[in-house]
Design a protein that fits this description.
Layout lengths: L1 E3 L2 E3 L4 E7 L2 E11 L9 E2 L4 E2 L3 E11 L2
Antiparallel strand pairs: 1-2, 3-4, 4-7, 5-6
């Protein structure tokens, strides 16, 4: 789940998890759309210049047990 602009949207994340001893490394990504969060992508010149609606979230997390 990702919360942006006060709205939460859930998507499946593709995740890779590696564990080595007391350390875990998690990498993942998911694709969301700005409009899912109620945000209109930037546009000007009658749409000739505009941002795409889709964006990706990348996670690179390393954790170590104390």
């Amino acid at each position: 789940a990702l919360t942006v602009h006060g709205k939460t949207v859930e998507r499946p994340f593709a995740v890779n998890i590696e564990k080595s001893g007391e350390t875990a490394h998690v990498e993942g990504f998911a694709t969301f759309k700005f409009t899912d969060f109620g945000i209109k992508p930037y546009s000007m010149l009658l749409g000739a210049i505009r941002n795409q609606d889709a964006f990706q979230v990348f996670v690179d997390l390393k954790a170590k047990r104390n």
